[in-house]
Design a protein that fits this description.
Distance between the termini of chain B: 7 Å
Number of helices of chain A: 14
Number of strands of chain B: 0
Largest interface: A-B, 118 and 114 residues
Shape of chain A: flat
Distance between the termini of chain A: 42 Å
Helix content of chain A: over 70%
Oligomer: heterodimer
Structural class of chain A: mainly alpha
Helix content of chain B: over 70%
Largest sheet of chain B: none
Shape of chain B: globular
């Protein structure tokens, strides 16, 4: 509490219209340098415990050798990484991860553009329909994934009942076991990932759309521009900042996505529906060192995306000026 | 930023209203209304599609056990007793619901205590290291427990803090603090310093002015941060899955996951519990949805 009092002093000194000239002694400079500490320290400590310490531990673990029971045996050098890169499953998992991110984010962005346009129109009941859109965003992703798993039950799930009525699916056939085959399982999981990503993306694009001044469209209309022309040369360019931010946040979320694949297939059959994130988790059970190596690789990828995001951020700000 | 988002939002709607009014010339009233009907129909259809999985959640929660595998959209009769039986001690839902509440409330309080001073100070003062601090917060916001889960597991293992609600509170608070800092920072900055100065002239200390004047004015931001943290902690899955092994400190998400591995899955109870976990959260979320967009995209869309 005494810290707070000293900060108060420092703060009120600045609030006085004309601060009396003070000697810039060493003590006062240090005190001023320390003024933010009581305000920021709790946040910094929390970040240190929950973010920085785990990163350090992760690097450490990736360089150590563990028995299959998780008991530390000794240093491993780069053996965990060699084991990881020598893993016969890794290349297909990497390819699948890229496919997963590109497909989910790509489809999400395109569909959200259309949805944002739609929900930006005026019609009675718009508020209520927008609320309905929130459900997959607010609900726990693992619960949404579970309900889809249930709806895809081979011989009694409602999706199969519906597709059977349309004549598209036979009961008790390979075709009805959507999550049993890697390709169809991936397709459905991509669908679920798009489903839970749409609300945030649509809302972000909606906010972007609403920030565009209506006068611009008026002016374009007066100049005789068609709707498509004004969409292409007004809406899309002005929507770019919102679009790019939603894009990067989605890339992060989808790359880190765990509950959908975990609840729907556990990464199986075999390793055939693992992404790098799920693979890291599956390795954790018995190969903690290799799992840590996988997390380091994932972490590097994430850092690259973050750096890209920060540059984008600056770029957007400069554009805005 | 959040406040600004809301206001541009309104300006946008006003602009749209002007546009709509100008389009509604006497020349083509019927065409406009037909267009509105088509748009409304499409929007209603999409809204229903978004709700269908959760409707199936409700229907399954009310399915009698012996009808679970029947091929029909609706059961022959609804077993309302499911909603009572699921609280039976054999399932552990009561205990897990308590754990989920504890960890979500704990994380929310911790975030409020930690994020408010940081957000206030960075909004009001410029000091050495301010940019660095905000950069670290931004990076934290982009990281997720998933990315660090092996490290988090090893850390809490070495501190003997597995199976404790306390560690789940720490992790959830840590990863949701960034959002709270951003949104509170935006609100504090939108409140004029002069208000605080006036209060200080009236004899308040600086801290008192912050507490009595600025904090209440930033209430919308505070509420948004609180609700958002609560929901995120309530729904969090991978850290809880990793850090809990026994049922004593198992939140609802992990408990429901453990249902799946069992020989016979009690789907009706699983989805009954899911429903109870989902409905209040969706309603809470509807209150803050606009401001969440502002907070999550803070510093960028602006």
């Amino acid at each position: 509490m005494s810290n707070v009092a000293s900060v108060e002093e420092a703060a009120s000194e600045q609030a006085v219209p004309t601060p009396p000239p003070r000697r810039q002694g060493r003590g006062s400079r240090i005190r001023r340098g320390l003024a933010p500490v009581p305000w920021l320290a709790p946040a910094v400590i929390l970040i240190a415990v929950v973010v920085i310490w785990p990163i350090v531990t992760m690097v450490q673990t990736s360089l150590q050798r563990y028995s299959s029971l998780g008991i530390l045996i000794g240093s491993a050098g780069t053996q965990n990484f060699t084991a990881l890169f020598g893993d016969p499953n890794l290349s297909s998992i990497l390819v699948r991860t890229v496919l997963w991110v590109v497909a989910v984010v790509g489809i999400t962005m395109l569909v959200s553009l259309a949805l944002a346009q739609l929900f930006n129109q005026h019609f009675p009941g718009r508020r209520v329909t927008r609320w309905a859109l929130i459900a997959p965003w607010a609900a726990s992703v693992m619960m949404t994934a579970l309900i889809f798993r249930w709806m895809l039950q081979p011989d009694s799930g409602v999706i199969n009942i519906f597709l059977h009525q349309l004549g598209l699916v036979q009961y008790n056939s390979a075709g009805s076991s959507w999550l049993g085959r890697p390709d169809s399982a991936m397709a459905w999981m991509i669908g679920v990932a798009v489903f839970v990503s749409l609300p945030f993306t649509t809302y972000t694009l909606l906010a972007g759309l609403q920030a565009i001044p209506g006068e611009l469209f008026e002016a374009a209309r007066v100049d005789g521009a068609s709707r498509w022309q004004s969409y292409r040369s007004i809406t899309l360019p002005l929507l770019r900042p919102a679009f790019l931010v939603a894009l990067v946040i989605n890339v992060m979320n989808v790359f880190n996505s765990f509950p959908i694949i975990w609840e729907m297939t556990r990464g199986g059959p075999g390793y055939e529906t693992n992404t790098t994130t799920v693979f890291m988790y599956n390795l954790k059970q018995s190969f903690i060192g290799e799992s840590a190596a996988m997390s380091i690789v994932n972490f590097v990828i994430i850092i690259v995306v973050i750096i890209f995001f920060l540059r984008l951020n600056n770029w957007n700000r400069q554009e805005a000026r | 930023m959040a406040a600004e988002t809301v206001s541009t939002d309104r300006a946008g709607e006003r602009g749209a209203a002007v546009r709509r009014a100008s389009k509604r010339g006497p020349a083509r009233p019927s065409r406009t209304s037909l267009k509105t009907v088509i748009i409304a129909a499409a929007a209603y259809l999409i809204a229903v599609i978004f709700l269908l999985p959760y409707l199936e959640m409700l229907i399954t929660a009310l399915r009698p056990q012996q009808e679970l595998l029947e091929r029909n959209y609706l059961p022959h009769h609804f077993a309302w007793s499911n909603l009572i039986n699921m609280w039976g001690s054999g399932f552990g839902i009561t205990n897990s619901l308590r754990v989920s509440l504890e960890l979500a409330i704990g994380a929310t309080i911790l975030v409020l205590l930690v994020a408010t001073p940081a957000a206030y100070y960075t909004a009001r003062r410029s000091f050495r290291g301010r940019g660095l601090f905000l950069l670290i917060v931004l990076i934290t916001q982009m990281l997720q427990p998933t990315a660090l889960i092996v490290g988090i597991y090893k850390e809490f293992l070495s501190f003997h803090l597995l199976n404790s609600v306390f560690s789940l509170i720490l992790v959830n608070a840590g990863f949701n603090m960034a959002f709270a800092v951003w949104i509170l920072n935006a609100y504090f900055r939108s409140i004029p310093v002069e208000l605080e100065e006036a209060a200080m002239v009236d004899g308040n200390s600086h801290f008192g002015a912050m507490l009595r004047i600025t904090f209440p004015l930033a209430m919308p931001g505070v509420v948004t941060a609180l609700i958002f943290t609560f929901i995120a902690a309530w729904n969090e899955f991978i850290a809880a899955l990793t850090l809990t092994t026994g049922s004593s400190a198992m939140p609802l998400t992990v408990l429901l996951d453990s249902f799946i591995g069992q020989y016979t899955v009690d789907w009706q109870h699983l989805f009954g519990a899911s429903l109870i976990a989902t409905i209040p959260v969706v309603i809470l979320f509807a209150f803050i949805e606009r401001r969440v967009v502002g907070g999550l995209t803070a510093g960028s869309v602006k």
